[in-house]
Amino acid sequence: MYESVNVTLDPSLREKVFSGELFKWTCPSCDKEVTILYNMLYHDMTNKFMIMFAPSGIEAINEQYNDLLKRYPGMRNSLYRSVDNLNDLKEKILILENELNDIAIELAKVLVKYDKNEKLPAGSKLLFERVIKNKDDVSKDSLILRVLLNDVPQKSMVVIGREQYDRYLSFVQENDSLQMENYCDTINEQWILSRIVH
Known about the structure:
The protein is α/β, with parallel strands linked by helices. 34% of the residues lie in helices and 27% in strands.
């Protein structure tokens, strides 16, 4: 079990997170392999972010890191986030590696999900998957959101153009209610809805 993984110092750990190998344990008696999810800090020094993965007790983790960051301003040179499930950890890594704003991505997902014109299955979830780059014009990049149903990726996806993402980003930057109040928080659908629904 890893208390923390630094993927800048050991890039192989990133692949172990994405494959799930980091959370596999084999019983020495019967050789049965099981997945054990445990609290872990994911640290990317190159892209300057840290993600606390906390399958349980995420509120306490947020409180602990916010207290720490209040006391030690020198630690604030990275972006801090927290997640409570493995799909969200992988998604957050991809968002931040692509230098995207996770609040803008979560806002986009909420707006797409609640758009009456979108035909998403009941109970589905959207997860950022990747950016399709346009080699000639960055403004023509596309962001792919994968549809998940019961945490299983589906064939269907939603495509958001870069210009549309940039509009969401501008809205986030101009809207005080969508600004971080803490140094570390769980930025997800609930976080967005708590700030835009009155």
